[in-house]
Fold this protein.
Amino acid sequence: MLAIVDSGGANIASVKFALERLGVPGELTTDPEVIRAAERVILPGVGSAAEGMKRLQQRGLVDCVRNLRQPTLGICLGMQLLFEESAEGPTRTLGLLPGRVARLSNSPGIQVPHMGWNTLRVERASPLLSGFAGDTRFYFVHSFAAPLNEFTLASAEHGSRFAAVVQRGNLYGVQFHPERSGAAGAQLLRNFLALT
C-alpha cells in the first residue's frame, strides 16, 4: 500500500492520477497509523514552506513523517520540507536533511519562479535515477531551492545550480514534478515504487 500524505497541496490530485496510470492506487490520508503502515509514502506539496509546515502540524503529522522508515518521496515543497529550514518565512522545517532552502536569485535572463522544463546533472548514481539519459527533461515550478550537499543525487541549473534530487537513507526528494513530467516522470515514479 502506498500512502500519499494529504498536506493540502495543489498537486495532490495530479500525483494520485499519475500513480493510478501506473496501476498503483495511492491512499490519500492524514492518518498517522495508515502512513506508518504503508510500504511507500509520498509527501507532495505546493505553496509556501510556512503553510506546508502549518498543515503538517495541524494534522499531527510532523513526528510521523520524521520517523518514517519506509521509502518516502518528497515532491517539490515536500522535498524542501525535508531540510532544516526555509528562507521562506523563515520557517523551521522537518530537519531530516542538512541545509537551508533559499530563494532562487533573479538575474539577467533568469525569471523567478522557475517554471518549465529542465535537464538534470546526475551527481551520484541511484536506482531512483535508473534509465535516464543526460538530456532527459523534467517539469519544474518553484521559487525556492535546496542547497547542494553530500545527499544530492542530481542537480539542475536556473541562474545557479541547486539540488534537484536528494536521498538520505529511506528519504528521497525531487524538486520537479514527476506527475507533470510525462514519460520521464512516470519512469521516476516506477523507479521509486521498485525501491527496496
Residues 12 and 44 are 6 Å apart (CA to CA).
